[in-house]
Amino acid sequence: MASTTTTIINVAASNVGLDCQSYVGLRPMLLPVRSFRSVRTSTRANPAPRFVVRASETHSGPFKKLGLSDAECEAAVVAGNVPEAPPVPPKPAAPAGTPVVPTLPINRRPRRNRRSPALRAAFQETTLSPANFVYPLFIHEGEEDAPIGAMPGCYRLGWRHGLVQEVAKARDVGVNSIVLFPKVPDGLKSPTGDEAYNDNGLVPRTIRLLKDKFPDLVIYTDVALDPYSSDGHDGIVREDGVIMNDETVHQLCKQAVAQARAGADVVSPSDMMDGRVGAIRAALDAEGFHHVSIMSYTAKYASSFYGPFREALDSNPRFGDKKTYQMNPANYREALVETREDESEGADILLVKPGLPYLDIIRLLRDNSPLPIAAYQVSGEYAMIKAGGVLKMIDEEKVMLESLLCLRRAGADVILTYFALQAAKSLCGERK
Ligand code: PBG
């Protein structure tokens, strides 16, 4: 009990860092009286275990301790001798030359709520946790992990070894969701991308292995033909260059079912074909996979921020671009059209991609749908922060955490980010 009471006094008087000058106009007794009352009620009437707040040991606030033991404090209060307020400390000196001005006649000073770490923590509106992260991982058939040039710290991981180790590391710091991206050998690519639904292909095989090792790992998969397409497009390409919608959706349904059969928890169509969410939902349900979720890439833009990813998977389109299916970066309202479609077709999660340059779109979806929203901090965003850090132009660690927090503030529930492991380590207080 004694230690609890000490803690409370410390919290009231020092950890919060209250500054006497902020209390001008209030009875100076108010604060100490309140804290001593709470001591009395707590020790007498309420001996049950209580919420414990750890007081800072290193405070240097203006309050001096009174030098009384807890028992002496209590006895003094019971006897009606409420201690005096500590003396108001002298006003700290301002540098020579500071102008002497009348106090501004303002009744709202927002800085009051920002004046100490405890107050800032109390009023923080958004939080960031490893539970919010989905870790995208590149896999290949090889045994070795191969570094990806434009994404320092990221590798094409060997599906049997490197991958399993990376997943274990992520789980150690609270990241229990991953999304898999396969690097498929050229020999297995074709115009119709049929390798995408090979039950013994790299992705289904990897899912089975991971589910065997980590049954509670949440596995997201990518549903799109580009890693399997000899044309490097997300769909089947007609001879005149048109990406065929409904035929592609047929393939995507087979791909999603193969992934679900292997044990995927969330299939994630990133292809931007029309009608694919509804078709995939129906295909999954027809095979008994009612429990498998769909995270739809609802607002996926034709962005130049995907460059490093396409290098990682060697999945650059062999000709043209992806503008007939991915959205125009100039468009905002169009994201609502996609949102309505995906919601009505049964999507469980709506994704916006890229992330940081598209915060307005994340907020738009957040305000217009009750569904969970995901944001994808894509390869180019990752590469820019890494490059800025290597060149010592920015503080990589801080910019990383701020960028992730901002995605949350804009309205994202989960964030797909190559920083998942590094950020989670940082949030857990582990040094790199
Ligand atoms: C393709 C896909 C892409 C990304 C995820 N899935 C690339 C593209 O659309 O060309 C990009 C992710 C990133 O850049 O990090 N279906």
Per-chain topology:
Elements lengths: L1 H14 L14 H15 L25 H9 L38 H6 L10 E8 L5 E2 L7 E4 L3 H11 L4 E6 L19 H12 L4 E6 L12 E2 L5 E2 H18 L3 E4 L6 H11 L6 E8 L6 H7 L20 H12 L3 E5 L5 H10 L4 E5 L1 H12 L5 H15 L3 E4 L2 H8 L5
Parallel strand pairs: 1-3, 1-4, 1-12, 4-5, 5-8, 8-9, 9-10, 10-11, 11-12
Antiparallel strand pairs: 2-3, 6-7
Helix pairs in contact: 1-2, 2-3, 6-7, 7-8, 12-13
Number of helices: 14
Record field, number of beta strands: 12
Low-confidence stretches: 1-62
User: How much helical structure, as a percent, in the residues?
Assistant: 25-40%
CATH superfamily of the domain at 130-428: Aldolase class I
CATH architecture of the domain at 130-428: Alpha-Beta Barrel
Describe this structure in a few short sentences:
Its EC number is 4.2.1.24. The chain has helices spanning 2-15, 30-44, 70-78, 117-122, 162-172, 202-213, 245-262, 276-286, 307-313, 334-345, 359-368, 379-390, 396-410, 420-427; strands at 133-140, 146-147, 155-158, 177-182, 218-223, 236-237, 243-244, 266-269, 293-300, 349-353, 373-377, 414-417. With 432 residues, it is of the alpha/beta class.
Any overview of this molecule?
There is one protein chain. This protein is elongated. The chain has helices at residues 2-15, 30-44, 70-78, 117-122, 162-172, 202-213, 245-262, 276-286, 307-313, 334-345, 359-368, 379-390, 396-410, 420-427; strands at residues 133-140, 146-147, 155-158, 177-182, 218-223, 236-237, 243-244, 266-269, 293-300, 349-353, 373-377, 414-417. It has a domain at 130-428: Alpha-Beta Barrel (TIM Barrel). The chain has an eight-stranded parallel β-barrel with strand order 1-4-5-8-9-10-11-12, surrounded by nine helices. A hairpin with a 5-residue loop joins β6 (236-237) and β7 (243-244). It has 14 helices and twelve strands. The longest helix is centred in the middle third of the chain and has 18 residues, at 245-262. Ligand PBG binds at residues 222, 224, 226, 234, 270-271, 306, 309-310, 322, 378-379. Residues 222, 224, 226, 234, 270-271, 306, 309-310, 322, 378-379 line the site of ligand PBG.
